[in-house]
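User: I'm putting together a teaching handout on how multi-component assemblies are represented. Below are the sequence lines for each component of a complex, exactly as they appear in our records. Could you produce the 3D structure of the whole assembly as structure tokens, so the students can see both representations side by side? Please keep the chain order the same as the input.
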Amino acid sequence: MNFPAELKYTKDHEWVSINGDIATIGITEFAQSELGDIVFVEIETQGQTLGAHEIFGTVEAVKTVSDLFMPIAGEVIEVNAGLADDPASVNTDPYGAGWMIKVKITPGADMSQLLDAAAYQSLL
Amino acid sequence: MEVTSDLKLTALTSVHQNLGAKMVPFAGYLMPVQYSGLIDEHNTVRQALGVFDVSHMGEFLVSGPGSLELIQYVTSNDAAKLVNGKVQYSCLPNDNGGIVDDLLVYRINEELYLLVVNASNIEKDWNWINSKNTFGAKLEDHSERTSLLAVQGPKALQAMQKLTSMDLLSMEYYTFQMGTFAGIENVIVSTTGYTGAGGCEIYFPNERAEEMWNAVMSAGAEFGIKPIGLGARDTLRLEMGFCLYGNDIDDTTSPIEAGLGWITKFTKNFVNSEAIKAQKDNGVTRKLVGFELLDKGIPRHGYEVVDATMNPIGVVTSGTQSPSLNKPIGMAYVPTALAKPGSEILINIRGKALKAVVTAIPFYKV
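Assistant: Of course. Below is the structure of the complete assembly, with chains in the same order as your input.
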């Protein structure tokens, strides 16, 4: 499985790409493979400021449903509109077309819980 | 990760693992839930054929004088209607208005029957049927030594015909034959299944399991056969509105509520038959129905059916995104007044009342 070195990861199987004060967030290849065929991503938190570990949405696979957790505190400023028509892109391209939200990171947010690729893989 | 050490294995567990299946605990067994992907597997069965290892299912033989009397007393359907080579869907009512299990009854001859029961209920069913055996019938549990493959799909019988001189293509639905299949003697082949896609189920001894698996895969290769996991088995059965024990029916649901009146025959006396007949005559307060979710979302087992003020009035028993229809479907117990197709109901999904409409089953019409 692929876990790009430039990304950060969480124990909840999300990935984070940090660019200045903006974080792009999705779920890892391991997560999508555990969920199976994803058919619906529901994110209704755009515009909300959420704390780390709060639920920002849910992902529905054919077989199961799973909550999505904020890796870091911030305001949800954008939701990937492409997921409405092609939720399966989370399966086929979890780090690219399958991204889920962009977050404006709360100043001073705690990032000490984020893992590098090696530390994340050691959890699997 | 799950602790898997106490789980039972089928004779094909290592075959599934070598194929890269995702293995999960199910009914006390380590079972393949998915190989290539649930939707791909589902579509393979609808369009061509697939093979399921369902060796976890239980098999009991009932033999000798008293066999039919015992089966007539513990099951709801009329087993006296069976002839040799015929299979019947039935259920085991309990004493309290619920269902011990649903099962298939195969009549091999007038004093020899095969009962096929759910894996999760093997011990419960065994104890239950034995406790009711005042008829002197002989009971044997063959579950641990019997393997079962379901080969399902529109190409299944054509492919499997290559493996036997038994005439599979002319078999009627819910019949069986015994004979040599893939060079293995005393195999039972029945035109049964849990997918609505056509095909057969094949019973044989564990010792021949890999040999049988390889023969089935080879015979199906030209038609695009794939191994299919329990995930697609669930979506396939739900599209047909087939009940899953433990989800849609259980120890507390009556056959009448569950829409199983068609396998409940009052031409004979059976366990709790007077109370069940009273339900049929007087009506029940809730019924199991199919529904389509109209709003965006996916219904799941255990979600509430609610009224306009979010008070629970029923419960979702099964739900998924239908791969064939590409829409969310489910089954639920609802008040009888809302059980007619076209009735609008609401499902509580994460605190929101989402609109759904009661729909006739099967959802998927072949």
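A couple of points students might notice: The mean pLDDT of chain A is 96. The radius of gyration of chain A is 13 Å.
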